Amino acid sequence: MTQTLWLFGTRLTIVADHTTTGGQYDLIEGYFPPGAQTPPHRHTRYSEQLYVLEGEFTVWAGENKVVLSPGESYLISSGTPHVVAVLSDKPARGLVVAAPSAFARLIEATGTVDETEQIDMALFDRISVEIGDELLGLPGDLPNA
Fold first, then answer.
1. What is the rounded end-to-end Cα distance, in angstroms, of the chain?
2. Residues 122-141 pLDDT 10s
3. Within 10 A of 73 (CB to CB), how many other CB atoms are there?
4. Global pTM value
5. Contact indicator for 102, 21 with CB cutoff of 8 Å
6. If you write DSSP's letter for every residue of 19-33 in order, what string do you get?
7. Separation of alpha carbons 52 and 58, rounded Å
């Protein structure tokens, strides 16, 4: 069963999570409207693989900056500060594999059904700590290299 929620201006559809993968990974489809950007953050307990389906993603990961087109992917290792953004005037869509499973839990707990609804940041902070995520800034900030 899939579930679609909004988080920081992106529409995230949970395709698979711990309930269907035995905790091995999460599979999430992300839709980023033009200008969407995650806040700088890092995952301390899982890696994140981004695969581009449509559009173009710019990824800052540690000291690297890469621009990904359809069919390309990028692995963000656990512990790496990163930002994912759509800088063009067209939306982008991609798949994220988070391994082991944890990211879907954050989306399920803090995502909103309505894209204009505010995120409960106290809950976001609590779940982030529980799964080993660290928020390193605000949307629009870039990670320190």
1. 39
2. 999 999 999 999 989 887 78
3. 12
4. 0.90
5. no
6. HHHTTS-EEEEEEE-
7. 11
